[in-house]
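Handout, page 2. Input:
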Amino acid sequence: MLNVLRDWWSSLWSWLQPGDRAPRVTAIGDDWRVPELALRQLNEVPLRIEAGLELLPLVDPSQGGKVIDTLGRMRASIAEDLGWVFPGAQFSDNPRLPPLGYRIFIWGHAVAEGQVMPGMVGIAPDRLTPEQRQVAKVGERPKTGELVAWVPQTVEEARRMGLAADEMMLEHLEHVLRQQMYRFVTPESLSMTLETRLRHYGRELADELLSRFITRGELLFCFRDLLRAGRSLREFPQVIEALYRHCHARSHEAATSSDAMFGMALQIPQFSPRELAEATCREMGWPSLDERMRPLPG
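Output:
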């Protein structure tokens, strides 16, 4: 008992001293004895990536790592495609992981893991040359789970034929983030998106949608379901307008559930201003856009 108290006090003292780094090695099941780990578990960050010790050069910019810089460009690319921004990622080392392994956490839950080999290139086994076969090591491609042959980058043409370790890791990370993007739709991100994406058009419509027909929670779950189904929220003002039209048309019925809203949104394959304008013309009995834009005779 005395030894346990002494270990606990030693950990607590290290945590309290300014500028000192927290203990990095903790026995499995003892996380709650280390204060900083306990606090981290109570307040998890949205996105965290833990890396084995031999992968730190791929992540740490001071050691020439490119993963963090590339992640910023990936964030912009995914936002352009899906219409939603994932939060910044927190990277940390974890001595308990395999030295070549990494693990991806979303809101504290491990969602994926993989292993890569720094200084080597992952190549499909059926593409190996006789020279590459002699030095290849068998592994697994993290994104797909398929077999991959790891070949030193110094071997002739290896770099041209496959992906380096950091590229393989980033490929897997992008795949996971695209699949799990719906998990990042939170009340805070919804408020920010409504404020920024509807600044020039659609804000009043969104306010009326939320005040007359649905709650913010129902709208949040609708967006989550759309992203989970692989649909894009890129044309955000048009998404809001389409949902408003469906809710308004069904305003005589019972309250619209998020499931019903999701079904409504899926019925619209592509949100575009022209399609919405044509729908308005049909609903109001006006001439079609083609007729209205037809040049006058002579």
